[in-house]
Amino acid sequence: MPCRRLPEPLRRARVAGRAPVGITVLAALLLAGCAPASDTAPLDAAPPTAGDALTGTVTVFAAASLRTAFDEIATAFETRHPRVDVVAVYDGSSTLAVQVQEGAHADVFATADENSMQVVVDAGLASDPVVFATNTLVVAVPVGNPADVTALADLSRAVTVLCAPEVPCGVAATRLLDDAGVSVTPASLEQNVTAVLQKVAAGEADAGLVYATDVLGDAAVESFVPVGAGDVVNRYPVVALDGANAAGVAFAAFVLGDEAQQLLQARGFGAP
Questions:
Q1: What would the mean pLDDT of 181-190 be, rounded to a whole number?
Q2: pTM above 0.85, yes or no
Q3: Among 187, 5, 207, 215, CA closest to 91
């Protein structure tokens, strides 16, 4: 079945209630061939069978940088579980964390950094998130590089767009620039990395700091890896939120499994 996507901006929904995942969820996972995830033993969902117990809708809140990979992962999960529909919402991790805190319904939460995830954990809405991928920054420029941006220091003279400092890509960009001793006055500060890339691709900016995964296959931009990028690595955790349905728990486990990991790495993400 096709994987539906919600329009942006997100239409928040009130959570009807958050009961702990109990015996029903555990039984459903056993029938589906799944088990709780761990750092040392990634799990995968079982192939679909006539007795597949997973049904319903899984609502996934995920960082904007995960859009392409998670669309593919959702399709793979739905193929294995034909009676499950995955609905994905993408935005900046910190924005999504606030929405979860305020009662927006989600079964699964995947962020581009551990700090945004910790906000939800500290609020008592999730526990034991697991890192499933990593990512690093690159400098993106329009095709042809009209402003001749070839080093991180060039961002100080170019029309540069960055992520806002409270979102993961902004935190990483700030650290990268500070480590290099480069001062940048951004033309704009965006709430997610997708918006940064869109401005660069449209020629509205000379350059922007985005994730390596964002520029992969984008014919409208060129990119280079700046010095020091390897020292600024974003770690992506995922968790089934408290009160998630059985399919949501299984989806979080599926993200840690071999099939999803291969899809992530094909999209440029590093191993956890």
A1: 97
A2: no
A3: 5
